[in-house]
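New to this. Explain the following:
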Amino acid sequence: MGKTALMIIDMQKDFCLPGAPFEVYGAMDVAANIEKALKAFREHKMPVLHVFRYYRADGSDVELTRYDGFAEAGGSLVRGTEGGEIVDELKPIDGEYLIVKQRWSAFFETECDMLCRRLGIDHIIVTGVQTPNCIRGTVWDANSLDYEVTVLTDGTGAKTDEVHEANLFDMRNIGVMTMSTEELIASLPNVPRENHVAKIRKDIEEKGIVPELSDY
């Protein structure tokens, strides 16, 4: 069984602060819960992954569907700007991993998968904003890459509570686990998990079924 890591997605000022260009409703309430989880992971010396966006100042690498908003705001989430910074409550410290992305998923054209496998991480606690976009995109990719995934119900958020709950419902329907921040903290360092890979491996070995018949 591998390690469990806390993943914090897009908790940057241009997403989280009131009046920010891409403000997500309730993001600072979400930040307060993530801060509790982050403190607990640090106390247990468990791995933490900070995932965030940086765009080029000219907008050449902004998503097609987000470019107009980027341009209207005069540029957002640009490296070196205050809006691109992670909110003060969740600032990374030495020893935590930083992953930059330009698209929705933490795994899309980033080093995230390679880094997790190198570190022995196979279970990811997903937090951040917002639920239907970067959270969902990351969860689907993580599931496709055979990671176990748990989503913090009060450590993620969307523009409306209805959108948030609808997406959590979809995630649970594909077998993704969900839990509250308090439930997570109480479970550390042994977060509940399914151990899917070990179960599948054991089943394959015990049944001894020939997986494929050669046509050659």
In short: The domain at 3-207 is CATH 3.40.50.850 (Rossmann fold).
